[in-house]
UniProtKB/TrEMBL annotation:
Annotated Carboxymuconolactone decarboxylase-like domain residues: 36-119
Signal peptide range: none
Transmembrane annotation, as ranges: none
UniProt name for this protein: Carboxymuconolactone decarboxylase family protein
Amino acid sequence: MAHPEPPKDARAMRRAVLGDAYVDAAVRDQRPAVAEFQDYITETAWGVWARAGALSPRDRSLLVLAMTAALGRMEEFRTHATAAPRAGVTQREIDELPFQIAAYCGVPAGNAARRCLTEVANRSADEV
């Protein structure tokens, strides 16, 4: 079933997963090219998250984590690792990720993911 307002649904999904503070910071710069790029990211990447389909937000979160780790995009991995619990990913699933990443993407990618997950966990513990 198609969503009646895909851009609106994509914006809502982005905020639900990444949080208002992250999205507000990302869209703060209102220069036309930057604003247009943020709209593009929201409508394409988050439009996929918001569409109907067999994958849940949890599934999509795990896939994004695996793909960003495989590509070595650790800044994006960190963003999604921080947001993963809001998408329904459990701590046990997050702890298991580096094993899968190391097995299929190589030990350096698994090590980088583990370091990043540790940083995210430590930062979260400091905020409590």
